[in-house]
Automatic annotation (TrEMBL):
<dbReference type="InterPro" id="IPR053165">
    <property type="entry name" value="HSI-I_assembly_Hcp1"/>
</dbReference>
<feature type="region of interest" description="Disordered">
    <location>
        <begin position="36"/>
        <end position="55"/>
    </location>
</feature>
<dbReference type="Pfam" id="PF05638">
    <property type="entry name" value="T6SS_HCP"/>
</dbReference>
<dbReference type="InterPro" id="IPR036624">
    <property type="entry name" value="Hcp1-lik_sf"/>
</dbReference>
<dbReference type="InterPro" id="IPR008514">
    <property type="entry name" value="T6SS_Hcp"/>
</dbReference>
<protein>
    <submittedName>
        <fullName>Uncharacterized protein</fullName>
    </submittedName>
</protein>
Length: 344
């Protein structure tokens, strides 16, 4: 279960100070684990004598630790966030609107921070970063962390509601240009991440990366296993060095690498047999119909006059798309409707 949710915004903070450190979970994990691993002030009477170093804290003790670690943060009651993408087949040449990086919306009580939040919204000010963190219950000396690390942050909406008999609450909408989402299971005795899955998306450049997911569920024992668990991979870049690294780490069988397909193909079509002369024909798709259409256009002949096409590599007729066997023929000759091979 979720124990507490917190939001950090660097309001009126000199984040250009060389000693300033963004309070990500990577920077705060030792502090958080030290607090959660401290013996409770009043142990429960049924505490056994052979318990591990961490005593079973009372709820109030855990809440006090979390409040101390997140001093200066805003406590949140609920939140929501979404991403969406248009089907690639429906996209045009401009992909700017094809990817929707949704706003992070959260609800909290009205606090002393509220006037500043309203001002930031009205002034359309950009904050360099923000941290949103959900902390789960401690079970078996492990705690679950879900964290959103945001960059180029803007508060786009603040709405307040209240009434007699209760505290006023406000809902914030937070927009970010770059987002990093982390799912972490942390051992509070060692401060190590036993599970660490991360994705990052840059909505300015429309690119991102993610860790390679491991289904083994085993603790990290070697540097190689650590590299596999923490490697951030941009699967859309087709970067040769990244593909080589993935292969070297042995991740090819675990992850289906994207197939690099050229935007067009060039083939040589026989136009004269004596002397041998070819015309270079460019086709946009790797199928029989596209090849015949490209030949008709290049040779300026009616499409229906091309009866069949043949690969000069294996001297076989190309009867269907399956005849290519994933290899584009580089040399082709074709027969016309009068039964003759063109060029002979």
């Amino acid at each position: 279960m979720t124990k507490a949710i917190y939001l950090y915004l660097p309001i009126d903070i000199n984040f250009r100070n060389p000693n300033y450190q963004i309070p990500t979970i990577e920077n705060q994990k030792d502090l958080l684990c030290a607090g959660l691993n401290t013996p409770a002030s009043v142990p429960p009477p049924t505490t056994p004598t052979n318990v591990p170093r961490r005593r079973h804290m009372m709820d109030d003790d855990e809440e006090n630790v979390l409040s101390a670690v997140h001093d200066g943060w805003m406590e949140v009651m609920s939140f929501s966030h979404n991403v969406a993408a248009q089907n690639k087949r429906g996209r045009g040449d401009n992909d700017d609107d094809a990817i929707h990086l949704g706003e992070l919306t959260c609800t909290k009580f009205v606090t002393a921070d509220s006037p500043s939040l309203n001002y930031l919204c009205c002034a359309s000010q950009i904050l360099p970063h923000a941290i949103f963190r959900s902390v789960g219950d401690v079970k078996n000396n492990k705690v679950n962390i879900i964290e959103y690390e945001l960059e180029y942050v803007q508060i786009t909406n603040v709405s307040v509601s209240g009434g007699t008999g209760g505290k006023p609450v406000e809902t914030l909408s937070i927009n970010a240009k770059i987002i990093k989402t982390k799912y972490i299971d942390m051992d509070i005795l060692s401060s190590e991440f036993e599970v660490s899955q991360v994705y990052k998306w840059d909505n300015i450049n429309k690119t991102g990366s993610k860790t390679v997911h491991s289904t083994k569920g085993e603790p990290t024992k070697t540097l190689l296993e650590y590299a596999k668990k923490t490697l951030m991979v941009n699967l859309s870049s087709h970067d040769p060095s990244m593909v080589a690294l993935i292969k070297e780490l042995g991740l090819v069988t675990d992850y289906d690498l994207p197939e690099v397909k050229p935007s067009s193909y060039k083939i040589k079509v026989l136009s004269n047999s004596a002397p041998v002369v070819y015309k270079v024909v460019q086709v946009v798709s790797f199928d029989k119909k596209s090849i015949i259409s490209a030949i008709a256009e290049k040779f300026n002949i009616p499409l229906e006059t091309i009866e069949s096409i043949y690969s000069q590599e294996d001297h076989c007729e190309i009867e269907a798309d399956q005849s290519f066997n994933s290899d584009v023929p580089t040399h082709i000759l074709f027969r016309t409707s009068d039964g003759k091979f063109y060029g002979y």
